[in-house]
């Protein structure tokens, strides 16, 4: 895990090394200060060496302190720069990895969990890295150097360390082992809370329309309380760290004063040595307390690092490894050959079963079926958003797995059920289809999608700024912009997944007419609930429970297929 994360420190390792050198210098200078203080008491005051000697040693102590302070400040700066750079690289690495995820990979991790891993977990690991550069070097070095100096100054008192260090060491081990699983549970609760926030903000209009703000507030309070309880359970163990360390520290102080005082009375130890030894005890035990703090922080960061590496180690199930990089989609024919598909990759839980379907280049194919009949699942296999479980899908005469994902998806445009627009201008969104498209091409395709009229009615026209997700335009306008964006791509295959459901029937008819006239060489697949949207298709596929129930023209299906006839009859009655 450390090796995997280490590569993200690239570009900032020199600063990390400098931080380490500065903190080592800081420790050496800080440890030497009590030794100088000993001479001031033993030689300068008790030995009557004079004011000049005392002032000289005092100036030396001041110089050591200021130099140590400077080294500490330089260390802090280098550590901050290095740790923030590491966090930037790690976030980018995670984001790039997620960008390569297939839909199946994304389904494995919830969106809220991925957000937590990119934010909270990276921040935890960043803090651990910064502490590793500074405190993880400072504390052990301080422990070693201060212990050495303490034994040198007062060897008869060094036995107190034999009492303190084992107790603190056992405390570190016990608290760390107990806290780790609690921190893991806490981070999972964070995922749950973020999921509540994301869901609520995404559906805020629905929440307000149904006057469910109080209900959603209760749900969030519940999720927030779960985080609090999980955090308290973990922190309850960590807070024991401070009292135990303080108890050991002051016990050692008392023991040192008692034993040292007796040694001074007996004449075997000088006052300056005792004062210096007490300072070294404080340094030794404070370094142990720092180690305890680091250890607990590492426990938290280990839980976060584990979650981060889960994303980095996730095997992407749809790749270009076996693809022919030179192969391009030449035409829009589509073949489904005995295709089966399962989201769970379980042969006993198939979403699509034994699909055999042939679509010629330039054909318009309608797909009809009830809710849950796997219409969307079927078309998602064409641009290889998911891979088949069995059989194969061919586009342009080749298995979709033979194309690189870029070459395949550049030739297949898909307007999804959920219309997604991004913050920015209408023109920016349309150019997702083709960044090099001319204004004339864009306007022509917007006219085909029946979008040009409402766009030009806006004061700023194509430069109109859209809110996040296109919140400042209607559902029908979103659909038409998404269709226009797909048309601008000039694809070999275009898939409209119930993408005219929010427009009126007259506009729907105009869009279909434009598709027929302007995309004559393009294979068009239309998923629709309204039969009127597919009635003119070259053929219509009726899906039922993940299987093809019938294929034919409107007239043929009216005569031969009961499901299609029932849907048509019910819709005709609804229009009367």
Verbal overview:
It is a single chain. By secondary structure, the chain is an alpha/beta fold. It is 63% helix and 10% strand. The strands form three sheets. The chain has a six-stranded mixed sheet with strand order 6-9-10-3-11-12. It has a four-stranded antiparallel sheet with strand order 2-1-4-5, with no helix packed on it. A two-stranded antiparallel ribbon has the order 7-8.
| Counted beta strands | 12
Give me the Rg, rounded: 35 Å
- Counting helices, strands and paired strands, the structural category is alpha/beta
What fraction, in percent, of the residue positions are helical? 55-70%
Number of helices: 20
Between the first and last Cα atoms, what is the distance in angstroms?
66 Å
* Rounded mean pLDDT score: 84
Please give the largest β-sheet. 6 strands, mixed
Q: How are the strands ordered across the major sheet?
A: 6-9-10-3-11-12
Q: Report the sheet-strand fraction.
A: 5-15%
Uncertain segments are none
What sort of overall outline do the alpha carbons produce when their principal axes are compared? elongated
